What we know:
Layout: H1 10-16, E1 25-31, E2 37-41, E3 44-50, H2 52-57, E4 70-75, E5 88-95, E6 101-105, E7 113-118, E8 122-128, H3 135-148, E9 151-157, H4 165-175, E10 181-183, E11 204-208, H5 215-223, H6 231-238, E12 249-251, E13 257-260, H7 274-280, H8 282-288, H9 305-311, H10 317-337, H11 339-364
This protein binds guanosine-5'-diphosphate, magnesium ion and zinc ion.
Zinc ion binds at residues 288, 291, 296, 298, 301, 304-306.
Amino acid sequence: xxxxxxxxxxxxxxxxxxxxxxxxxxxxxxxxxxxxxxxxxxxxxxxxxxxxxxxxxxxxxxxxxxxxxxxxxxxxxxxxxxxxxxxxxxxxxxxxxxxxxxxxxxxxxxxxxxxxxxxxxxxxxxxxxxxxxxxxxxxxxxxxxxxxxxxxxxxxxxxxxxxxxxxxxxxxxxxxxxxxxxxxxxxxxxxxxxxxxxxxxxxxxxxxxxxxxxxxxxxxxxxxxxxxxxxxxxxxxxxxxxxxxxxxxxxxxxxxxxxxxxxxxxxxxxxxxxxxxxxxxxxxxxxxxxxxxxxxxxxxxxxxxxxxxxxxxxxxxxxxxxxxxxxxxxxxxxxxxxxxxxxxxxxxxxxxxxxxxxxxxxxxxx
Length: 366
Ligand SMILES: Nc1nc2c(ncn2[C@@H]2O[C@H](COP(=O)(O)OP(=O)(O)O)[C@@H](O)[C@H]2O)c(=O)[nH]1
Ligand SMILES: [Mg+2]
Ligand SMILES: [Zn+2]
């Protein structure tokens, strides 16, 4: 394959510039693990490891190679290979800067940044039109997508399971401002034609969504063959078996590159900026700009355009609550992402608590 078929662009080319002079070559991560990565390159498929130095110098797990990343590698001298199918080996010396990236907060209390995919052009946010369908989850996914820098497309899969997919599509369109919405059934060949506008040669598309919504089924449709395990089999993969036989970045016959991410149980914010929330909730941002006071908290201030819209029904109460919830999560995530901020915040709260305790003592006459 040539590099352009793998999505090589100006951004990647500029990023690779510092590594140009030696014997390093660029390659793209098809499957990222801490210790072994599968790469696609102009030299074919490679099996690669990070150098000790890269592992040592990398401050955060999120800076290690993730699926979609461009890396600078050194090919190992041709070793005697086990067979024609075995891949050439290489060492990863650097991860190139990312054009776009999807992060979430890793599970657990002190979860750090976890990278889901890098250098994605378009993201299909996949939801199933079954009992699990949920507008609020779509808003959360949209916020993460706007933050990533990739263009989101909402894909409502399993339309065969819903009596009125067109109505749902209209409802989703009203919350997915700036993102196209497509309803289809990955189980039916002809319906995926609706995704053709985004399946451009050499463009990278990631599929994001909860486990079981049909991401792998859709990827297999786009590939024209059942390459990715689906349903019960994919669950077994999720538990850690067969992981080495699985690939995450695949080349479709149309030339588009698709990234099939493992199903997510939850998508907690890593560092989602205010801007990304404002893009997701552009309607609310526009209302807030019309409030009488610049620092309106949208509670009971006179001239509050948000409260007025809630009263006349033009702003849905659930959407308003969803926005507030994601805003709180965003503030929390920002503190997690920036320890310095977290410390300052902690200090401020400690000061307030101390002052409160002092006041109580004064009142009780201690
Ligand atoms: N009825 C219906 N079932 C589907 C459709 N797409 C996928 N499925 C089923 O949903 C289950 C989960 O699909 P899978 O692709 O493994 O989901 P993933 O976890 O998101 O990768 C499988 O049993 C699929 O056969 C669809 O369009 N309609
Ligand atoms: Mg899957
Ligand atoms: Zn207001």
